[in-house]
Amino acid sequence: MIVVMRVSSKESEINAVKSKLEGVGFKTHLIQGVERIVIGAIGDKRALPSLGIDLMEGVEKIVHIMNPYKLVSKEVKEKTIIQIGSTSVGGDIMTVVAGPCAVESEEQLMESAKAVKEAGATMLRGGAFKPRTSPYSFQGLQEEGLKLLRDASKIYDLPIVTEVMNIKTVELVAEYADVLQIGARNMQNFDLLKEVGRMKKPVVLKRGLSATLEEFLMAAEYIMSEGNYEVILCERGIRTFETATRNTLDLSIVPLIKQTSHLPVIVDPSHATGTWKLVAPMSKGSLAVGADGLMIEVHPNPPEALCDGSQSLTPENFNKLMQELQSMHSLLHA
User: Fold this and answer.
1) Which of 6, 177, 228, 320 pairs with 206 at a CA distance of 20 to 30 A?
2) Are 299 and 312 in contact (CB under 8 A)?
3) E strands within the chain?
4) Contact 40/76 with Cβ under 8 angstroms?
5) Are 287 and 94 in contact (CB under 8 A)?
């Protein structure tokens, strides 16, 4: 359930409600929006009638959420905007996270960072730890890759988004990254979700290969239930019978999430399609259905890429796409 507090509520009134709920075993989450203040309460509802919460000072109403995901629900908050450095996700800005699939070398990363910055990207992506289908494929530069990402971030003033693969490396990655990414294969790694939920870093959560909408939102609930409310959902394609593309990009999930949850949603057309020629049209389609942004792979020399070169745009193609996307974004938000 959620306890909706009046916007004019005093801090002492909010703390009194939280204390009363926690006193009978509820776990509380304070979520402050522009239009209202909400206390999410997870626990045994049978204890609620005797508490008289609805009669306490500052309380506007109590709302029972029927969905299994509580903190993710739109009933908690109308919209979440996440501030990351000088940019944000979920507001009026078109978020574009761009860069190579994997950090391969200083030269490759710096060239990529320079290109995406000049084209208008708002954040830099790059894998230092790479989960690969084959154990013989390039696995990433690991901490050396993280150091290169941090150097590129300082030079080009781009916040870093990079993947964390297991609990052991969460603190290490968090030392360097501005945003922690949970990959599709780890979407239901619940111990990892809880660990990043305890970090004070925004999280990009990618949809699992065969995850339903409810499973996707429940994964976000795991993160938020630990106190981290800065979650960005990312659609990156799901596994279907179709083999013409790497995955099937489910754009219908974007408006569905918007109707269900307050969390921002971005789309990764690179991983979804697996081919660079489809990245531009699917990027435009993503904006058209209401996505808050995109995650796009860019490499200075895709044929020589150690990871996913076939789906990476060249700097020239990315620059052309960004011009088209910026024009489209202006029209959609006019």
Assistant:
1) 320
2) yes
3) 2-5, 27-32, 37-42, 59-63, 82-84, 87-89, 95-99, 123-125, 160-163, 179-182, 203-206, 231-235, 265-267, 293-297
4) yes
5) yes
Q: Write down the pLDDT at residue 137.
A: 61
Please tell me what DSSP assigns to residue 261: B
Annotate 7-45 with DSSP letters as a single string. TT--HHHHHHHHHHHHHTT-EEEEEE-SS-EEEEEES-G
Contact yes or no for 39/18 (Cβ under 8 A): yes
31-86 pLDDT, tens digit each: 887 677 999 888 877 777 778 888 899 999 988 888 889 899 998 888 999 999 99
At 144, list the tokens.
């050396």
pLDDT digits (tens, 9 = 90+) for 208-257: 999 999 999 999 999 999 999 999 999 999 999 999 999 999 999 999 99
Instruction: Report the distance separating Cα 85 and Cα 208, nearest Å.
Output: 28
Tokens standing for residue 6: 């009046």
